[in-house]
Amino acid sequence: MKVTFPHMGNAWIVIQTLFESLNVEVVVPPFNSKRTLNLGTKLSPESACLPLKLNLGNYIEAANEGADTIVITGGIGPCRFGYYGEVERQILIDSGYNYEVVTLEPPDGSLLGLAKRIRFLAGTKNSWAKILMAMRFAYLKSVALDRVEDLIHAARPRLSNPALTEKLYEKAKEQLVQAMTEKRVKDTVAWVQESIRERQEGLNTESVKPLRIGIIGEIYTILDPFSSVGIEEELGRLGVEVDRSIYLSGWVGNHIFRGLAPGYRSIKSYPKHAKPFLPHFVGGHGIETVGAAVKFAREGYDGIIQVFPLSCMPEIVAASVLPKVQDAYKIPIMTLIVDEHTGHAGIQTRLEAYVDMLERARLLQESIQTREGVLSVGG
Amino acid sequence: MLGDDKYFLGVDVGSVSTNIVLLGQDNTVKESLYLRTQGRPMQIIQEGIRLLRSKIGKSAEIIGVGTTGSARQLAATLLGADVIKNEITAHAVAASRVNPQVQTILEIGGQDSKIIILRDGVVSDFAMNTVCAAGTGSFLDQQASRLGIKIEEFGHLALEAKNPVRIAGRCSVFAESDMIHKQQLGHSLPDILAGLCQAMVRNYLNNVGKNKEIRGPIFFQGGVAANPGICKAFEEELGQSIIVPENYNVMGALGAAYLAQEKVGLRQDIRTQFRGLNLGDTQFQAKSFDCKGCANRCEVVEIAQDGKSLARWGDRCGKWSVVGVPSPGTRGEETKEEQRGA
User: Which H or E run includes A110?
Assistant: First the structure.
């Protein structure tokens, strides 16, 4: 058995770790690329959302490397992702791929059923104690990965050479892939902190107050830089510090460990924040999107950007509620919809204009008495 | 001939038109050019500069350059720009300089449409069409040529309508079949055109203008503002009057010129990067190649003037962006060479 799984940003590092510590052979599909998208689009219904198309592309690329079993998480409620495991299984059969698909969810609510599936993946050689240990370690790594990612969010607008910052990020990820002890994982985070501190020396970072933008929206697109056309990196380059509503470990903690582990940036408080605007579940992460918008607004962020794949129902519901949040907290919220187009120019224009708008609003606030000239007007 | 004076140059290179504005130091527009981009931005920019030179004479001096539009980076490289700004900021700056009270800007261009909300002279919100280009200038162009009328006549004919027909405006493909259906039933041309104007305005307000508080004064700018049929449809739908500013079709370029003035004009210590009016006579080459350095497979573009590399972009890591790195040919990269230029 060779297990593979769909890509979603950095999730591969965690999933690979989990299977490797259980001595299960795992195939990491090639990273999402235009080729992945082309392969997936050929097999997908036209109206399916972007994640399905990328998932299928991942499986085909992984099949070329010998994978024969797919692991995907399931879901409940009115988001299509919940049945993608099954849809993908049938599409793959129709297209002549001989894949076993294991959906990690309690079938018809049966925890025993879920345990059976995990047992199938882990084989007979692993004891339950070992499986739980492996899951715990993978979870710790996932939290560390999220911490590194957030450190990079803060470093991008503050450090001078953007290429060096990206290199640091890549190197940290490489180290986390290799790390198989808790100490190595911790050391990597400390090393990233230290490297940033070193590079900050000599820079007058006190005077730099980057704009802060919260990224909210559909989990797959905000976690996967290929899908979001790299908006976090782009905003960093424009001098913005970004934060995100959902991090991988925060989602895993809530979704898979049922809230037993909080993860990085726990998503638990979002429904409470969303309540005055959206008091009930609408599927996917619609309620988290609205709740996170409220939370970012309350924390004094300068702006909020919502990202979702075309035709994503829960996010469309959220998008229609967000103007109320915008009015209530006087914070500009922009919505970006991503789909198969990989062109960068459109997104770039919108991001630049948005950042310009926030910068000028701030400039105006700072110099309200000396308002003359174009730079203080016109957004 | 405009005589001996100093000017700011604003250039807006969009999908359909390339606009050039020459702004005098007294804040008046001395010259404005509206050229069709025709898919060849490099040549059209050069052509525009040649045209400009023939109009303003040898003694004129350009003391600041701003570029905007979807090809703003390309234009900036060719011209040597002091400011490179997105279209939204440029349009907002131009409008608020023309009338500081403006609260809403409706802008419909060739391939995109946007709405900009200003409060107290500052942009407070904006939106652009996202995954669909229905209801932009290109579609009107297309329909005009299908009906065999000039785009300039479109709006005036629409104003003659007595009983505009209802046309589905959500999708331009469906709008077209709806129009053909109505035409085959025998409805008059003005009624169909007026119906199309209304459908376009409905579509714009439902998509781009969704959730935006549209307060007056309202400016309508971009190429489509030349169409009185659309203006009328906007006024009917909004119940407010619409102002089409004098330089409505070159507002982006005007904004870029104002931004250049702001950055360079008021300061003694900054000199313009402008490469000179004779750049219309030199040779520009564009070359693109796929970088094979990593899995991103970035498509890198290189612009050269008379064989000398000016700029590269398209790479995510910044490996090629630094001019001075040896050209890709020497690294064994595949190149797709394309010769352009005058």
Answer: none
| Displacement of CA B186 from its chain's centroid (Å) | 37
Q: Report pTM.
A: 0.84
Over residues A241-259, the pLDDT tens digits come to 999 999 988 887 777 666 6
Average pLDDT, chain A: 87
CA–CA dist A150, A145 (Å, integer): 9
ipTM tops the 0.90 cut: no
Q: A44 and A76 in contact (C-beta within 8 Å)?
A: no
Decide if A86 is inside a domain: yes
Give the torsion through C-alpha atoms of A223, A214, A78, A29, to 10 deg: 0
Q: Whole domain around residue A244: which residue ranges?
A: 210-379
Contacts of B116 in chain A (CB under 8 A): 379
pLDDT tens string B40-91? 888 899 899 988 888 887 778 888 999 999 889 888 888 888 999 999 999 9
Q: Which residues contact B324 (CB under 8 A, 6 or more apart)?
A: none
Q: What is the DSSP letter of A158?
A: H
- Tell me which residues of chain B, numbers 252 to 271, contact chain A at a CB-CB cutoff of 8 Å: 255, 258-259, 261-262, 266
Structure tokens, A339: 């789909």
| Cβ–Cβ < 8 Å for A297, A304 | yes
Residue of B nearest to A320 (CA): B211
Locate tokens 């490397």: which residue?
Answer: A65
Q: Does A336 touch chain B (CB under 8 A)?
A: yes
Measured in residues, chain A has a length of 379
Domain boundary among A189, A206, A223: A206
- Regarding whether A356 and A264 lie in a shared domain, the answer is yes
**CATH, range B100-244:** 3.30.420.40
Letter for the amino acid at A23? N
Q: At what angle do helices A34-43 and A50-63 cross, to 10 degrees?
A: 100
Q: Where are the domains of chain B?
A: 6-90+252-280, 100-244, 283-338
Number of structural domains (chain A) is 3
Statement to judge: residues A113 and A22 lie in one domain: yes
Contacts B92 to A, Cβ<8 Å: 378-379
Regarding whether A361 and A291 lie in a shared domain, the answer is yes
B277, B290 contact by CB (below 8 A): no
Question: Is B92's CB within 8 Å of A339's CB?
Answer: no
Helix orientation angle between A345-366 and B87-98, rounded to the nearest 10 degrees: 50
Domain assignment of residue A131, yes or no: no
User: According to CATH, what is the number of the domain B6-90+252-280?
Assistant: 3.30.420.40
pLDDT tens for B13-22 read 988 889 999 9
Shortest Cα distance from A225 to chain B (angstroms)? 12
Which of A179, A206, A233 delimits the end of a domain?
A: A206
Same domain, A215 and A191: no
Cα separations (Å) of A50 from A56, A196, A350?
Answer: 10, 35, 21
Least CB-CB distance to B297: which of A33, A335, A339?
A33
Distances (CA, A) of B277 to A372, B59, B65, B83, B289: 31, 11, 12, 18, 30
Give, in degrees to the nearest 5, the angle at Cα B238 between B233 and B242: 70
Q: Shortest Cα distance from B153 to chain A (angstroms)?
A: 31
Task: Say yes or no: B89 contacts chain A, CB-CB below 8 A.
Answer: yes
